Design the sequence.
């Protein structure tokens, strides 16, 4: 076991002053043994935990880290602006430059509203759709995450039935299920929400079925509803444009966050011309939404998105990892289910419904300085190198050997409440 005395002591202190010691998606309560809760440093593709152990990080901050933590040009843009002024009484020129860069980059975007979190953007999308159509019902896919506001949080505690009202669920990639939901909405359909791909937790990922995308577009048009793509997680990781551009379907609105400023706090809702008036009709704001430094970071990030080969690079690195892991698993008699695009991989063991093997393997990897996630899609960042991937594969081989030696494994204690549910 790596030294974790600082982490342990921080957890004890946190337990006293933070509910459950931690909350939300960055709590490690559901992760395999050995995952540190606290980190002291991040640079490039690496993380250092509070005890000083180094990891190659395949979570990338759950998505924001696209070009490497502390990327020089982006950090410089951020710090230069920070020194001039950040959260001021009004926005800086960088907000206009960032909005121009977003509309240049995203084909369907004619306007932009910046905010802080992905949830701000998806919630604004919901409000704009309702304001434009004067209708209430939204359709979204079962199991798809759109944020943690009362209307979309996956945990109902603290919400009311009315928070979840006017929503109908369908199955992602199933045009018939979508058609049934549209029928159920009758003449009250305001919007169809969609993820860029199926990137739900715990289950195999799936690419977007182009037919599903086309049908969603057609159904929205037929009913005067808005089509909204939630690109908060997949944005600029799948394409240099909105993710659905890959299948030739343009949404009316798309929600962005995470990678748009390479981890500096910024998210955005973008939309096409017909919805500009509705966007201007809602009241949406926040104390930090207009802060100038993250906008400057976004301008620098967007220029790298436009001009660098980051996308091809992350795909090639992801392919190398996928191929190497399949070969290493086979050596030890395991079959993996590697799903999602290779630059946003989810790795499960075949015939491991309770994730027992997956947990043991991930636990062995974290001990060896590889930060994988057992049930959330991961991310490749452009700061990773072929050597990082090859080192990961070496360590994965050791972890397979250990998993093989363990034989039959009981499901992890921390997952039991979820497996029961
Ligand atoms: C697809 C998707 N939509 C929305 C959100 C919410 O973003 P945030 O956590 O920044 O509010 C997330 C966050 O993980 C996400 O993955």
Sequence:
């Amino acid at each position: 076991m790596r030294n974790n005395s600082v982490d342990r002591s921080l957890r004890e202190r946190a337990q006293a002053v933070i509910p459950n010691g931690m909350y939300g998606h960055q709590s490690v309560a559901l992760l395999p043994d050995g995952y540190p809760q606290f980190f002291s440093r991040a640079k490039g593709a690496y993380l250092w935990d509070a005890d000083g152990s180094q990891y190659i990080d395949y979570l990338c901050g759950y998505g924001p880290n696209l070009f490497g933590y502390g990327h020089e040009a982006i950090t410089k843009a951020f710090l230069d602006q920070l020194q001039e002024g950040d959260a001021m009484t009004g926005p800086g020129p960088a907000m206009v430059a960032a909005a121009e860069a977003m509309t240049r980059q995203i084909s369907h975007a004619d306007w932009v509203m910046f905010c802080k979190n992905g949830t701000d953007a998806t919630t604004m999308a919901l409000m704009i759709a309702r304001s434009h159509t004067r209708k209430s019902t939204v359709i979204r896919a079962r199991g798809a995450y759109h944020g943690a506001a009362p209307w979309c949080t996956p945990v109902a505690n603290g919400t009311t039935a009315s928070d979840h009202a006017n929503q109908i669920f369908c199955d992602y990639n199933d045009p018939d299920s979508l058609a049934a939901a549209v029928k159920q909405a009758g003449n009250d359909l305001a919007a169809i929400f969609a993820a860029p791909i199926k990137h739900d937790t715990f289950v195999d990922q799936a690419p977007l079925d182009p037919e599903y995308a086309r049908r969603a577009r057609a159904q929205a048009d037929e009913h005067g509803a808005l089509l909204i793509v939630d690109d908060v997680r997949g944005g600029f990781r799948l394409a240099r444009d909105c993710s659905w551009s890959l299948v030739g379907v343009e949404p009316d609105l798309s929600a962005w966050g995470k990678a748009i400023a390479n981890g500096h706090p910024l998210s955005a809702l973008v939309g096409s011309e017909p919805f500009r008036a509705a966007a201007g009709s809602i009241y949406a704001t926040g104390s930090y939404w207009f802060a100038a430094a993250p906008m400057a970071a976004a301008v620098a990030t967007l220029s790298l998105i436009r001009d660098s080969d980051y996308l091809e690079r992350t795909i090639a690195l992801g392919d190398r990892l996928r191929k190497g892991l399949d070969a290493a698993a086979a050596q030890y008699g395991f079959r993996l289910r590697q799903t999602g695009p290779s630059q946003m991989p989810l790795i499960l063991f075949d015939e491991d419904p309770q994730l027992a093997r997956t947990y043991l393997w991930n636990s062995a990897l974290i001990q060896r300085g590889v930060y994988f996630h057992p049930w959330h899609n991961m991310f490749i960042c452009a700061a990773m190198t072929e050597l990082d991937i090859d080192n990961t594969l070496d360590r994965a081989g050791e972890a397979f050997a250990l998993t093989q030696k363990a034989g039959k494994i009981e499901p992890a204690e921390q997952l039991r409440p979820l497996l029961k549910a």
The chain is about 40% helix and 15% strand. The CA atoms of residues 253 and 271 lie 4 Å apart.
